Amino acid sequence: MKLNRRDMIVLTAGASVAALLPVASSAQEAVDAIIAEFTGGAEMGAEGLTLTTPEIAENGNTVPVEVDAPGAASILVLASGNPTPKVATFTFGPMAGAQFASTRIRLAGTQDVVAIAKMQDGSFVRASREVKVTIGGCGG
Amino acid sequence: MTNRIFKSGLGLLGVLAMSGAAAAQDAEARLVLNEETPMVTVADAPEHMADTGIRTIYSGWAFRTGTTQELQADDFINPAFLAVDEAIVAWDEVDGTAGESCANCHGDVEESMAGVRAVYPRWNEEAGELRTLAAQINNCRTEQMGAEPYKYDGSEMTAMEALISVQSRGMPVNVAIDGPVADIWEQGREMYYTRFGQLELSCANCHEQNYGNYIRADHLSQGQINGFPTYRLKQNALIQTQNRFRGCIRDTRAETYAVGSPEFDALELYVASRGNGLSVEGPAVRP
Amino acid sequence: MVDTATPRVRVPRDATAGEIIEIKTLISHDMESGQRRNGDGDLIPRSIINRFTCDFNGQNVIDVAMEPAISTNPFFEFMAIVPESGTFVFTWYDDDGDVYTDSKDITVT
After folding, report:
1. What DSSP string describes A59-78?
2. For residue B116, is it within any domain?
3. Which residues in chain C are closer than 8 Å to A115, comparing Cβ atoms?
């Protein structure tokens, strides 16, 4: 697992490491489990899926997200830092004009949004983008 | 597809790179509704603001990121229009003991309400009182329709205000401040400069002296109300002007006035007049 | 909040055969996530639209499995190919069993 700066400070200080790590790892495990369920554990490529998000969201309640993966059968979208990471799964039918979809999602805070496309040939592609969610000034 | 939604992203960088009140806005960003109605989001300050130090007035739209700005540019993706749709139904609905609907007296909303939002709050000669748009709607309901008044800042009221506001979008705010409302306007101006609450903050402290600066991770606007009622992403709902006033004053840790109170009516008149010259934008979208 | 969900759908009125068109949909719904608490500190039960589908002349365009992280008043934009004149049917499935539908005709010239 990756340790962020705050984790390192805690580690260095020798403080309650045991209390902190399980939280971080269980959230990551939840994300990994959802991805494994979708991919069946297959390798994921990095090309062919465009995930578009704003770099900064003024409010986490309504964050526009677009996915575009020519030749995809379906696309899974995850919010890795949400209490329930799964956001949506788009499945494209024969009348889809493009393997493209746009929606608005809720983000509990600054985090990575992850998209995984299942291509029509059975392969998988993954893309990820960080969205910074700002805290409003007025009761925000 | 991507370009259209995020085309204002560069504007955002411009805003973030600058600090200080005067340079906070992106001069290049332009709001055009539905690719056909240009909106004035930057204008010369009205004459009565000559001694405020503010030469240029900016819509709150100018302080937002491209992502939020885009939500307002297309009526289809502006969530406020779900409420406008509801108000279109309510406009034709008979309610109350008189057996009347809005449409029975006013006819087609697009014709009869054009320009109305731009001049409110305004003096009602017959009643001898200042009326906000919300007060006028409730006066119609209770006096003409024999219906129950809407809750002053409830969802039915904000929806009806939004429907009426839509008919004036793009027209300049043009609120009268002289004649019979002169004293009330003066009272509103005094309130604007009065420090409230444990934090001892006046409207002016934030919205005149510090617009463009950060308050936590957010940019302070000039506190213009030309975009009200406003769909606020934080609340996922249309928010009424005086409801926002109450929120501001609450944030100073003060006891607030009630919506529909004479104090807030006076403040609304004064704040509205600081936007004279900006386009009516309601229902706008803000974070 | 309103007690019934009201859909808004935007589809072009006409297109040329085989054209790829853009469709936008918006529907009023609280999308109560099940994560929030009421004034008494009790969890407000989850109540969301959990699925959205669009079909053209009986064939699927897109089928979306929706989770509580979809924002209030769900919005979707997507593309469809129209080989002939016909009807788009839009369907939203609510947790409470309600189904909301809308349809739009398109003329191919």
Report:
1. -TTSEEEEEE-TTEEEEEEE
2. yes
3. none
Domain that holds residue C24: 6-35+44-108
pTM: 0.86
Bridge partners, residue A51, by sequence: A67
Distance of alpha carbon B119 from alpha carbon A111, whole angstroms? 45
Q: Would you identify the CATH topology of the domain A5-133?
A: Immunoglobulin-like (2.60.40)
Q: Note down the domain range covering B135.
A: 80-167
Total number of domains in chain B: 1
What is the CATH number for B134?
Answer: 1.10.760.10
CB-CB neighbors (< 8 A) of A58 in chain B? 64-65, 67-68, 218, 233, 287
Give the CA angle between residues A92, A93, A99 to the nearest 5°: 35
Domain boundaries, chain A: 5-133
Burial class of residue B281, CB neighbours in 10 A (0-12, 13-18, 19+): buried
DSSP annotation of A24 reads: H
Asked whether the beta carbons of B187 and B179 are under 8 A apart, the reply is: no
CATH number at residue C76: 2.60.40.10
Determine the pLDDT at residue B101. 97
Task: For residues B161 and B240, give the distance between their C-alpha atoms in angstroms, rounded to a whole number.
Answer: 9
What does the pLDDT look like over A48-92, one tens digit per residue?
999 999 999 988 999 999 999 999 999 999 999 999 999 999 999
| 3-state SS track over C19-70 | EEEEEEEEECCCCECCCCECCCCCECCCECEEEEEEEECCEEEEEEEECCCE
- Residue B23, domain member (yes or no): no
Minimal CA–CA distance to B234: which of C30, A61, C97, A38? Answer: A61
- Residue C1 forms part of a structural domain: no
Known binding site: residues of B?
Answer: 102, 105-106, 140, 203, 206-207, 244, 248
Nearest CA in chain B to C32: B236
